[in-house]
Specification:
It is built from 14 helices and 19 strands. By secondary structure, the protein is of the alpha+beta class. It has 2 domains: 171 residues, no CATH class; 151 residues, no CATH class. α3 runs antiparallel to α7 and α7 crosses α8.
């Protein structure tokens, strides 16, 4: 009977995705790692110059990557032989140019990146490991009180637990839901990021709301049959086109978020001043006047690096909605209610990733260091940048993988066809 098994026709054979099983779809791990380090350019003083990859292990000085040695255990004292626990890897060498004030320096950094054998196994410390697929959302997924976009650094937009109440000049109250983003442990109204980058009028135009929302001087007369007028302060009023405001929840939310950005001192001349809005943003973190603008700029740098190259490429939405972090936040804001109705268990909205999540874990490791550099602002010295960003161990990716739950350890080091493994995130 055995000799006839090869002749047996499997009726489901045509339904098998062999390229998926053999992992032929995934891009090179090196490409994902390079994209993470390219994102360091979000810090203005850093420029990524390029990289080289050495795949010939005979040309890689592995002895340079040994960072520590363990103490000899008692049970090992009597051993006659000590076997080397080797890694199978290529060497990624990168070059960065740092410009601080008038000082320029080129930094070279080399790291080991694990390589796969023909059966898609990794060899770390002499042991074979098999990466599991991870199932993630192709765009946003519903989280507590909001939406999360799975990027190298998650982009989270939430709605406030309480509604914002605005009272118009006739004493009529309007309750509306507003959205915020949590950055450096502060709840920040979404619109202030757009004001910092574009100014008030350009931001409103960017949302295509320039015919719906406007600001007028307090003494100006407005046709109240078509416009609802909310007094902001003694200088100006916020006006919104009544028919559109009453019909669409996203317009009400946008109106509330714009109103939240104003203070009793906001003047007409401040509306398109980037410096004014950066100071307003920075005031959420410090009360020292000369530090507010610096703090606002640091927060903006962190906000703009939330979107990475990998997410832009893999995100399954219209190209125009992922041009920048601002395009994505605009899309999430205007479609917030519809996206909140999404079913997280719907497989049609999912995608698989493999090498990409290794890069995501690397980015999280580097994230704290980047935040420290951003906190220094323009006062960051060359030494502080080098110490915080480029002093990580050259075997950082090996360390990340060793502690990950997404790799399967194979005790029997044998060659066999890899199965398609799947894990949900």
């Amino acid at each position: 009977m055995k000799k006839f098994l090869s002749k047996f026709k499997n009726i489901n054979e045509d339904r098998l995705n062999m390229k998926l099983i053999k992992r032929d779809y995934d891009e090179s791990l090196v490409d994902f790692i390079v994209e993470v380090f390219k994102s360091l350019e979000s810090i203005p003083c850093i420029k990524f110059l390029g990289y080289d990859v050495e795949y010939d292990e005979s040309k890689i000085p592995f002895f340079k990557y040994i960072t520590s040695r363990k103490k000899t255990k008692k049970k090992e004292k009597g051993q006659k032989y000590h076997y080397i626990k080797y890694d199978r890897a290529c060497q990624l060498s990168m070059r960065f140019m740092i410009t601080v004030h008038d000082e320029t320096k080129v930094i070279k950094k080399s790291i080991l990146v694990p390589t796969f054998d023909k059966n898609k196994y990794l060899t770390l410390k002499g042991n074979k490991y098999f990466l599991l697929y991870q199932l993630v959302d192709s765009s946003t997924y519903v989280s507590k009180n909001g939406l999360t976009l799975k990027s190298l650094m998650p982009i989270v937009e939430q709605y406030r637990d309480h509604k914002v109440r605005l009272t118009d000049i006739n004493g009529v109250d309007y309750d509306m839901v507003t959205y915020f983003m949590k950055v450096f442990k502060r709840e920040i109204s979404v619109m202030i990021f757009f004001f910092c980058r574009m100014g008030f009028h350009n931001a409103i135009k960017y949302f295509t709301m320039d015919r719906v929302i406007k600001v007028t001087k307090a003494k100006d007369k407005v046709n109240q049959e078509n416009w609802i007028v909310f007094p902001v302060n003694k200088h100006m009023n916020l006006c919104v086109f009544k028919p559109i405001f009453l019909k669409y929840d996203c317009v009400q939310a946008l109106t509330g978020m714009v109103y939240e950005c104003f203070t009793s001192k906001t003047n007409f001349t401040d509306l398109d001043s980037n410096q004014y809005w950066e100071e307003q943003l920075g005031s959420l973190y410090t009360t020292t006047k000369h530090k507010k603008i610096e703090s606002g700029k640091s927060t903006m740098l962190f906000f703009e690096r939330l979107l990475d190259l990998t997410t832009k490429k893999e995100l399954k939405i219209s190209e125009i909605n992922k041009v920048s972090i601002y395009a994505i936040i605009k899309w999430m804001t205007l479609n917030f209610i519809e996206l909140r109705h999404k079913n997280n268990m719907d497989l049609s909205t999912k995608r698989l990733r493999l090498n990409e999540y290794i890069a995501a874990m690397l980015n999280l490791k580097l994230g704290d260091s980047i935040n420290r550099v951003l906190a220094y602002g323009t006062k960051a010295s060359m030494r502080q940048i080098e110490t915080n960003l480029f002093k990580f161990p050259n075997t950082i990716i090996m360390s990340i993988l060793s502690s990950s739950a997404l790799i399967k350890y194979d005790k029997l080091i044998v060659e066999h066809t890899s199965d398609c493994m799947l894990v949900c995130a």
